[in-house]
Amino acid sequence: MRFGLIALCTLVLSPWSYGDEREELKLRIVELKKHAAQLMEEGRKDKAEGLIREQQELMEKLARMNSEGPSKGQMPSPEQMEKFARSMQQVQHLRIASEHLKLAGMHDMAMDLMRRAEDIEQDLRNAKEKMAKQMRGPKDQPQRDQPQRERPEARGNSVEAQLEQLRNENRELRKMVERIAQELRKDRD
To answer: Which of 19, 62, 98, 116 could lock onto 134 through a cystine, CB 3.0 to 4.6 A?
Structure first.
């Protein structure tokens, strides 16, 4: 069951792209590498070599794209926006499934699923921020003749670190509450 949850969470994020196809290429390269290794273990060397060649071609394509630099001012495609919306819906469904597991008395699995939903949601927020950065054009860059002001990102980093710390503490508190609730249930029985 846990493997199924991991697979589901992986499927939620796997089609995500960040304004260009670089992230999809990276994911595909990793998939090809794993699949080629599996085929080599099974003794299917000819098929594994084909996957390795495809992997090398994708790595060359990725290197060319990286040498061109990031694509600024590019609006996300409608497909990317649709994938993002679907992923957010899937996170909602994961939360609902977690609640159902909790009602069914499967609290550990419910907590695992809720944590995974939170992690996926954080990844989606990060992807959204990255997409917003890609959409900025040269006009959003600081001008040389204007004085440099403290960047809000610098303050944002400390806020993000504090937020992550709070999330971790919140998870720990949830675990403690869950353990206490389990103990109380055992005492009643």
So the answer is: 19
How many degrees, rounded to 5, is the angle at CA 57 between CA 55 and CA 58?
A: 65
For CA atoms 103, 109, 112, 116, the dihedral sign is negative
Residues 6 or more apart whose Cβ sits within 8 Å of residue 107: 101, 178, 181, 182
Angle of helix 45-68 relative to helix 22-41, nearest 10 degrees? Answer: 160
Domain chopping of the chain, boundaries: 20-68, 76-133+161-189
pLDDT by residue (tens digit) across 100-137? 999 999 999 989 888 988 888 888 888 888 777 777 65
Sign of CA dihedral 71, 72, 74, 75: positive
- Cα–Cα distance between 102 and 123 in angstroms, integer? 24
Q: In this structure, how many other beta carbons lie within 10 angstroms of the beta carbon of residue 55? A: 18
Which tokens is 61 given?
């394509």
